[in-house]
Amino acid sequence: MMAPLSPALLRAVAETLARIPVDPADLPAIQAQLAAQGDGLARLDALDLSAVEPATVLLPPVEGQR
Amino acid sequence: MTAPDLTALSIAEAAAQIVRRALSPVELTRAYLDRIHRLDGQFGAYMTVLEAPALAAAATAEREIAQGRSRGPLHGIPIALKDLIQTKGIRTTCGSTVLRDWVPEADAAVVRRLAEAGAILLGKLQLHEFAFGPTGVNPHYGTPKNPWDRACMPGGSSSGSGVAVAAGLAAAALGTDTGGSIRIPASLCGIVGLKATYGRVSRAGVLPLAWSLDHIGPMTRTVADAALMLQALVGPDPADPSTVERPVPDFHAATRGEVRGLRVGLPRELFFDHLDPDVDAGVKAAARALEGLGVAAEEVSLPGMGDAAAATFAIIAAESMAYHGPLLRRHSASYGADVRTRLLAGQFVLATQYVNAQRIRRVIRAGVDKVLTGVDALLLPTTPIPAPRIEEREATVDGITQDVRAWLTRCTRPFNLTGHPTLSVPCGLTRGGLPIGLQLVGRMFDEGTLLRLGAAYEAVSPLRGRRPPEP
Q: How far is B443 from chain A (nearest CA, A)?
């Protein structure tokens, strides 16, 4: 089981790298979601995908002006 | 003698009457509007009702048909749209207070196509905020009520679409589907939901959740109606580079095709694990019913499905955060807590995890393609559980307790990852009276076979012709 990332680390990454202010009250829910997916994401990293290219990422459709 | 309930007609039935001028589109539209006024206060499916424009459009349709200028089976049919789909001059909230007053300047491509086919727009429908959630619970505008039990979730994210069609408040609706958002409410509300192959239907003008997983499709009361809607929606669109030029069959004709000799595969992995016992029994009974029609059913192996959840999480998280980041920087407090925290989690998915998710995606898609060389379609449940109660956050099956969002999306999201066409058809009720959904998955661009199987099954389904109780 992956160790959960600390709220302090989550907040630092969000505010420093993504430049999105985070309400400390949101951090436990974010932490729980990442913890729930942590093992699955770690498994993806562990797969032998050396012969596999990524699926093509298509351009997004044109959006209306907002 | 009481007047016939026009809102009980399928699109195919209404269209047949309209074209021979036995039914007026104005009369039909008025019947739906009356029903919306009478009942939607109890269901909460609509965000916006377009009474005057709908009646005006119906009058135009009536005139054109009287002049011998019928546009086809959707001409004069009242439909509604998930409020994520942009409509020119009509407020499009996306289920969020962030866009409470947004009035787009252009219609989405699918709106233009339905208008060209002569469909009448009754209004815009409720959804999970920004389509990011499978429950349909919306903290801003209220949660639509499941017509089979108003204490239960409608499913999402196309919650209003599922409720409106099931409750007879629209003849059909459009939904969008990034992890199951057409099929989940279709399953929970006891209607038909069709997610066509990725690239069949233009996404231009629909607010994105995750570009590489988003699909748009019809939600209807019958499989034949889904075919009629799909016919109007498909085709390439220069505004959406994911759309492709492919032959378009007569989808409605496909619903009348013979199924004897077709083969369906029941996956051994993942999809039949830990099902609510009534769902398990209902889906297996549906497989036996198809066997009774001459369809061969066999177990198949779908390797790699165990990684689908993590891959989907990485892709949705990264793509949705890429889109919503600028909005969150300005309006973070206006988002509901569940969607805001799900979006914010996307900041912590590494770029390498996103790329690896796209690599495993290729492997999973190749695995599904390979299995579909041996069978014509896969057969599985749409959701492992029936509609939870609105306040429920977790559900327990076989002693395993999980977030209801994880339960609801388990069987649907792998096919957003692969892009295969997928049809959800009602296949019975639980002992508690809640609908069960059967999911059929077909080869790329082979919606015809799904519609053929779905219509054949529907004709013998225990839920055929059943409507939810009137409030």
A: 18
